[in-house]
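Box 3.1. Reading complex inputs
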Amino acid sequence: MKLFLLALLLCSLKGVDSMVKNYTPEVTNANLAGRITATTITFQQPLCQFDSEINATPGLIFWLVVANSQRGQNTFDAITFVQPSLMTHQTASTADYYLTLRTLAERYLCPPTSSSNGEMYFVRVGQETTCRTETCNVPLNNSKSYSVKFILINPSLQNSPNVIAQTNWSSFISLKTVVEPRNIDPSPRGRSAGMIVITAILSVLLFLLLAFFVAMLLMVCCRSTGKSDISEPIPRWGSLKRYNTHNLKDTNIGPYAMKI
Amino acid sequence: MAKGVKVVQGLLIFGNVVIMLCGLALTAECIYHVSDQHGLWPLLSAAHNDDIFAAAWIGLFTGFSFFILAIVGIVGVMKSFRGLLLAYLILMIIVFIFEVASCITAATHRDFFVPNFFLKQMLTLYENRNWQNDEQFQNYVGLTTAWKRIMPENECCGINGPQDWINFNSAFRESHLDADFPWPRQCCTTNSVAQIENVDACKLGVNGFVYTQGCFESIVGPLNRHTWGVAWFGFAILCWTFFVLVGTMYYYAILDI
């Protein structure tokens, strides 16, 4: 008789306590550019975890519990009757947890293998920037870290423990901390070899050119004071014909050459 | 003596013909650079760092001056006009100095093209609406428009990738929420009729729905190529011109011995 009572008690206890699945929500490991941003975290969907419960009772609803502290986790875990409409993001500031992402249970059934090719299953926490429902999925607060778990609720149960099954809490996940652009140093990483070569060689060339030019002017000036009066005419192209039988001092004889 | 002089004359004329052709080529190259086929000027202008275009403008005019002066030089050498040759030398040296400036500016400026330079500027100016005056207004709008065109055109996003937009705070972030606009919509892949394929997948950053490549190469590639041309081609012309000018000086000096 005693044994029977104990067994009954155990059975009822099992009925009261919701079943904690050996599953921990995880940030998706898919190669997503926006896995974690400053206000959102993308989790893997808890597919295939609750198939027996979902198939046993129709009309079950999934909720995602988002907690931003250990205290929030503990507070939520102590609750037996979960009322999602009273646990929205509006109460999160005091309660440190809230419920969001109401999902029909069938959505997290194991997908048929045929349709799973190319499909991706994510849950993005913090997605809704404009709230349309009370329990909307508001952007997360960048300064906090978050832990989530999925719970399966039977909405037809009133005033009695209504959580059919749940997952473990995920670890606390910090959001991306953004860097201020003014902290970026845009200065170049030193001088390139090409720039140094060009600058050095061109400076030398320019210096040489000017030096040669001055030397040339000096040479011509000095010579013009004491130059000899006989000089060989410089050949010129373009005039009718070069004609230099006359040792004329003036080399500018082109047009007159024809006359002689 | 006369034969030696003729050789010098021939060499100088050849040298000037080369300068002529190179001058034309430099002008053409600089026109191409200045015309900004890739529409990158707003990116540099917004950061007041468009010296590269200044270098190209200088190169454009010096190239043309080289062309004209080379003709003057050829005439001067052929006719042995001392006055003309002196004018040629003086003008050439002036143009030479300008081309040295263009060359060094271009070469120096290449070093500024580091990812962080474009990143900082993109973050602070893209979609920035806090302009104080007309100039800023034009710069900001020009930069935003340029970015909105560059990203879809080159199928890239940000400087290093879409992460740039979520790793850093930005003017864009101030007006666009992180959850809705982790990056601008221009980062989303589009179908053949230029419609975004899948906005939600793009927001998540799923491969194939967002351009994961950064735009740095698409921006700096053309700029670097043009700058390289302006700098090194100008440098080559200057080296050649140096010898031609020294030869002309020699010719001028022996002209009435």
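In summary: Chain B touches chain A through 68 residues (CB under 8 Å).
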